[in-house]
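Risk mitigation, structural track. In case the binding assays with 6-O-phosphono-beta-D-glucopyranose fail to produce interpretable data, a predicted complex structure has been prepared as a fallback.
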Amino acid sequence: MMTSSKSETTVAKADPCAMVIFGAGGDLTRRKLVPALYNLAESRLLSDNFAVVAFARKLEDKAFREQLRRDVQEHLSGEFRKETWDWLDKRVHPVLGDFRDPEAYARLKETLETVDKEHGTGGNYLFYLSTPPSLFSEIPRRLNEAGLSCEENGRWRRVIVEKPLGRDLDSARSLNRELQKVLNESQIYRIDHYLGKETVQNILVFRFANAIFEPIWNRRYIDHVQITVAEQVGVGSRGGYYEEAGALRDMVPNHLFQLMALIAMEPPISFEAEAVRNEKGKIFRAMKPITPDEVLNLAVRGQYGDGVMPDGEKVPGYRSEPNVPADAATETYAAVKLMVDSWRWADVPFYLRTGKRLPVRYTEIAIQFKRAPFILFRQTPVEQLEPNLLVLRIQPNEGIALSFSAKIPGPVVSIGDVNMDFCNQDYFNGTPTTGYETLLYDCMNGDAGLFQRGDNAEAAWSVVTPILDVWSASPPRDFPNYAAGTWGPKAAGQFMRRDGRRWRRL
Ligand code: BG6
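Fallback model:
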C-alpha cells in the first residue's frame, strides 16, 4: 500500500445530547442512522453523555432493539463489535405516539427529562425528522408548543430535515416560513446526503489546499464542466414518491447543485459554516435564469422503457413499476445546461445529467480544459490532440484523474492520451461509513457547514422551477424514450452536439 503524509489531528467527542428520531421504525433509521451512530460510537466520537430517543407510532421495545441490532449488522461495512452495540443499546429509549398527537409530545418531554438525568445529556436535543415531508412543519410546531424547541441557558435544540424540502420555489418558501416561525435558522439543519460523502468533502481540499489548480480554474482555461450522477437502479418500490418528484426535482437542485457549487464557488475566507454557505449561495444566485422559451434548448427529459441491463438482467420500464400509472409522464432522466454569470465562469457551460436505469452506477465531475494551440501540431489529426481532462470520481472507486497528451514512442510524432490516476483506496484506509456520520457529528457540534441554508435552498429552486413549470405544462409525447440499460434519450446527445461537444462515455 502506498502512503500519504497525513496531517493528524485529534478529533474531539461530540457535544452531550439526546438524539430524538421521529420515524424510528423507518428505512432511513434502520439502514443509515443507527449504523452511523454505531460507527460514531466505534470511533469514540459520541459523547459518553449521549442517548437516542426512538419516537415511533408503534414499536415493541424488545423486538425493536433486536431489529436495530440486526440492521446494524447487515448495513455495517466494518466489523460488528458486541461491546460497541451494548454501549449504544443501553442509551436507546423508545417513545410511542402519533406525531400529530399533543399528548405524545408530553410523553416525549417526560422521557427527555428522564434521559437528561440518566445520561447527563444536559438538555441538548437533536430532533431528526425521518418522516414523510407532510410532517416537516407540523413536528417543529408541536415541539415548540411542548416547549421542546426553545434554546436557553446554554442548551441547544436542533432539527434535521431531509429532502424533499418543497417541490418548487413556492412550496420551498412556504416550508421555510413555517420552520422559521418556530425555529431560528441556526437551529435548522437541512441535510443533503451528498455532502456526507468523503469525496464530495474532498472537493474543497483539492481545490484550495493545492496551489496548482486555482490559477487555471476559470474561463481562460476551462472549456466546460460535466457533472454526471448515473444510477443503475430503477425506482423500485419508491414509485409513489417518485411520481411526485421525477429526476429533476429528486436530484438536481440538491445533490447536483451541491457538487456544482463546490466546483464553482470562490474560496471562502474560512471553513466556518457561514463563510462556506455564503460562497455557495453566490453561485446559485449567479446562475443565469432560464426563461420558458429556453427550456427546450437548455434541458432534456427522458423516461426509461423496458430494457436489458449490462449484466443481462431484463428489467421493466418505469410505467410498469409498482405504484406508477401506465401513462406516467414523470421523467427518470434529466439533463440541463447552466451558465454562471460571473467573472470566473462567464461562457463556461456546466452540463448536468442524472438518470435511473443507466448502464452503470457512477458519479463524477469532469472538468474539460481548452485545447492547446495548434501550430506545432498542424499535421496531427485533431482527434489525437485531446484536451486535458480532470475527473473527480465521487463514487464508486473514489479518486481523481488527470489526462494529458504524450508522445507515442516511435520515429513519427504521434500523440496519445494518457492518464494520471489517484485512487483514494491506494492511499487511505477508509473507515466504515454510511455517509451520515460526519453530518450527525457536525450537527451535534453545531457546525452547519455541510447543511443547506434556507435562502440557498430557495435560490436553487428558483433556477429549476421554470423548467419544472414548462415540463408540467407540456407533457412529453415520446415517453418512454430510452431503454433501460442505455445512456438516456437521443435528445441528450443532440443537446451536446448542438454545442459542438459530447457527453463523456463512462
Ligand atoms: C436520493 C434520491 O436523494 O439519492 C434517490 O431520492 C437516489 O432517488 C439517491 O437514488 C442517490 O443517492 P446515492 O448516494 O446512492 O448516489
